[in-house]
Amino acid sequence: MAGPGWGPPRLDGFILTERLGSGTYATVYKAYAKKDTREVVAIKCVAKKSLNKASVENLLTEIEILKGIRHRHIVQLKDFQWDSDNIYLIMEFCAGGDLSRFIHTRRILPEKVARVFMQQLASALQFLHERNVSHLDLKPQNILLSSLEKPHLKLADFGFAQHMSPWDEKHVLRGSPLYMAPEMVCQRQYDARVDLWSVGVILYEALFGQPPFASRSFSELEEKIRSNRVIELPLRPALSQECRDLLQRLLERDPSRRISFQDFFAHPWVDLEHMPSGESLARATTLVVQAVKKDQEGDAAAALSLYCKALDFFVPALHYEVDTHRKEAIKAKVGQYVSRAEELKVIVSSSNRALLRQGTSARDLLREMARDKPRLLAALEVASAAMAKEDEAGGEQDALALYQHGLGELLLLLAGEAPSPYSPQPLAALPSPRALPLSAAEPPGRRRELLHTEVQNLMARAEYLKEQVKMRESHWEAETLDKEGLSDSVRSSCTLQ
Ligand code: ADP
Ligand code: MG
Q: Which of 77, 99, 157 best tests ligand 1's pocket when mutated (most atoms within 8 Å of CB)?
């Protein structure tokens, strides 16, 4: 049988046509099944001599396991054959090329797109992780796209690297070190966590256009890998804080300090829970049923919160749904929920805002009582600043940050406010003459009580703002559905301004 480079090999039952690509160890061809179905497949020819000798047997066993794996974001291995020279893997055909090409024809990917891809990759890795399979050779060339019209990632080429020596010449020459975790190159001792490093490199490349260790020469590359400098993220393009946080935690040189698999899957930027899946609709439905119930019971705040949580699942459910009729039906319903959420928003907003405004006299009293507590006073100032910020156009996000900061302090102080008459006085903050008679006159529990009410009101408001900000984000995400025809009415009513 002719090997790679000599035109497509012959294989029982298939007609091999164009070469789709070649990687480190194999050449991949597009092929048709000779059977009447004429199914299009991709056939990967791995030359046995490229494998460690003892590994051929293991590899065949492994292939048998991989054949049993079915996942939306993993290239399906349909069958395999072998002869004296090669092993042939008959795989699902991915028409969209690989992620490397996808990134480089676009230069960089917008954060939104990178996030969807990252979720898909994470779901594939979660699936493999649960089955104790590591990839060990994650890179954009090994991530394929189902099609270019509606691209879905498909993880390819996994489960094999375990049988290869990653530091052998071939690997190094083909440029894989760009994606290899430092411990793999430097210590030659590593475990599944190297995959997390590679995910970081892939994400970095998707967002910034080149991997973090991109170099002009091999010695420069080697220096970058061996150095112990923290990976610096370019300042542009502007990215969300969560995205930067994830990158930084994946690209941690020390595997023991690198983000764990569990934390990666749950990271707010990845948020696998809200990834479009077959379960999204059911989760949304459960929540919306609870929302309607709370609404009927007259608990507007709880209802609003549940509607928002439900919408967080409806958006991915819409992304997932392929049946146009069902999609339309869901959209119509979502439109109604959004309208109701809008109404509730007005009610809740005015009521918790009113609570805050009403609290003015209590707040003044509290402030008066806090004169001997500079830290408490400062925290109350932060809360006032948050309220003021809310009145500014577009100040919501800043207001929320201030509320959260102020609340963090107040909660700590509240925990320290002893309900008992004894409260230790720090020397540096000896009571001022005016404060002395006041705190002496007031029952000591009174300040705690006031503080408690204040914290509760502030929390309700912060919670509300948080939901509003989140709601706007789902609206933003819903806009991605534009291309899929999300009706204008839903979109505009999603704007909870
Ligand atoms: P290697 O183990 O040699 O790295 P890969 O499985 O990564 O081989 O395949 C090499 C290249 O062939 C990929 O980067 C991709 O461009 C192409 N390719 C691989 N599998 C498929 C497939 N199922 N459908 C379409 N193209 C594929
Ligand atoms: Mg490959």
A: 157
137 is catalytic: yes
* Furthest C-alpha separation in the chain: 99
User: What pLDDT score was predicted for residue 438?
Assistant: 38
C-alpha separations of 476 from 82, 128, 177, 479 in Å:
50, 31, 37, 5
- Phi and psi, residue 401, nearest 5°: -60, -40
The tokens for 122 are 């994470």
Place of tokens 């918790």: 352
Domains and CATH numbers, the chain: 14-92 (3.30.200.20), 99-273 (1.10.510.10), 280-350 (1.20.58.80), 359-470 (1.20.58.80)
Q: Tell how far the Cα of 76 is from the centroid of ligand 2, in angstroms.
A: 15
* Token pair in block for residue 291: 């929302």
Contact 371, 434 (CB under 8 A): yes
pLDDT, tens digit, for every residue of 62-110? 687 678 889 999 999 998 898 888 889 999 999 999 999 999 999 999 9
Measured CA to CA in angstroms, residue 282 lies from 91, 310, 312, 317 at distances of 32, 10, 12, 9
Taken in order 276, 113, 191, 142, the sign of the CA dihedral is positive
Catalytic residue among 137, 157, 195, 372, which? Answer: 137
Residue 454 tokens read as 């204040």
